[in-house]
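Extended Data, panel c. Modelled sequence:
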Amino acid sequence: MFEVRVETHFSSAHHLLNYQGKCENMHGHNWKVEVVAKGNNLDKSNILIDFKILKKDLNKIMEYLDHKDLNELEEFQGESPSSEYISKFIFYKMKQKHPAVCRVNVFETPTSKASYYEE
């Protein structure tokens, strides 16, 4: 089994719904995002997925999220844009183009990470 991982980042604001505490108020993060893909088969260049292509597609999603109020985006309407929910959103966007994507990790701080994957 082979595994590749790319990472990037974006900055945005959000507030959590149905939450009691500081995070129910508007605040921002410098999010770090990791996308992991895995598979058994390499192409004729012995590559699972070209890092350049994976990063290009991930960066399109980052451009959409960067410097936005996540609560105002259509995909998050009525949803609490938690790190967990953001990781799921990115997972499905990436999975559409890259079926080998198996996990998305979203760090809202250097020590706090949420992941989404399917079993």
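The two ends are 16 Å apart (CA to CA). This feature is highlighted in the accompanying rendering.
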